[in-house]
Amino acid sequence: MSMIEFHDVQKYYGDFHALKDINLTVEAGETVVLIGPSGSGKSTLIRTINGLEPIQDGKLIVNGYDLADKKTDPNKIRKNVGMVFQHFNLYANKTVLENIMLAPKVVLKRDDDENRDFAMKLLDQVGLASKADSYPRQLSGGQQQRIAIARSLAMRPKCLLFDEPTSALDPEMIDDVLNVMKDIARDSDMTMLVVTHEMGFAREVGDRVIFMADGQILEDDSKETFFDGQPSNERARQFLSKIIVHK
Ligand SMILES: Nc1ncnc2c1ncn2[C@@H]1O[C@H](COP(=O)(O)OP(=O)(O)OP(=O)(O)O)[C@@H](O)[C@H]1O
Fold it and tell me: Quick one: pLDDT band at residue 240, thresholds 50, 70, 90?
């Protein structure tokens, strides 16, 4: 069974056709990078995967659950699919440790000692064990994002979605966050979908690169084909040449 299957998926915001005929299969353990111009539908696509955005037509199966089926319990999806946002979205009035322990406690009813031990292990993994009792406002943006990643990992998801996780960060913070993401991509069997402009990340750990424009998938390549060969789509080639010029 594949982790994610889109079959002819359509998504509308009112009259606006935001996702057009999306067909995409992602296997368990793959790291897929989504790129494309602003407004092309990348965020919308990944937000449909955990049910944050409903679809209007087609079929979307995530971890075996049909998202369009009203009988599917949304919690079944949310337990297995984590999301890391551009703006971290940590709870301001909770400490770092409390942020990480909250969802496993409420949703999974995880035993308190086990929850704390695992949270501390994750904090260690993202290099922030010393910040367990700090509040989010006492941390830099890059540190907050690493906490947000640890918080997602605390649910032991099968799939992790990243929506431009480094684009709100000062340049000097970006590598710390990317390194944490690279470690996860290499060392875990989690499925990762990453919307990002960080082509270094895509080249290093992406298994596949998907190029979107105007709500459509125009290119779906291995990273070798995308970066070292030539994308067959003209707009993808133009986009790639602009990115390389900018770097
Ligand atoms: N809640 C909404 N209501 C109406 N239109 C929306 C909504 N969210 C997104 N859109 C529109 O859908 C299109 C795709 O947006 P989306 O955020 O998915 O693109 P994106 O490729 O992620 O862009 P960016 O790189 O700028 O984040 C855009 O034209 C956007 O204006």
Answer: confident
Helix, strand, coil shares of the chain as percentages rounded to 5? 40, 25, 35
Element (H, E) at 82: strand 81-84
Q: Rounded distance, CA 182 to CA 177, Å?
A: 9
15 C-alpha to center of ligand 1: Å? 13
Domains (ranges, CATH) in the chain? Answer: 4-246 (3.40.50.300)
Concatenate the DSSP letters of all residues of 15-32 into one string.
TEEEEEEEEEEE-TT-EE
- H or E element, residue 210: strand 208-213
What lines the ligand 1 site, CB under 6 Å?
13, 16, 18, 36, 38-44
- Can you give the pLDDT at residue 246? 43
Look up the pTM and report it: 0.94
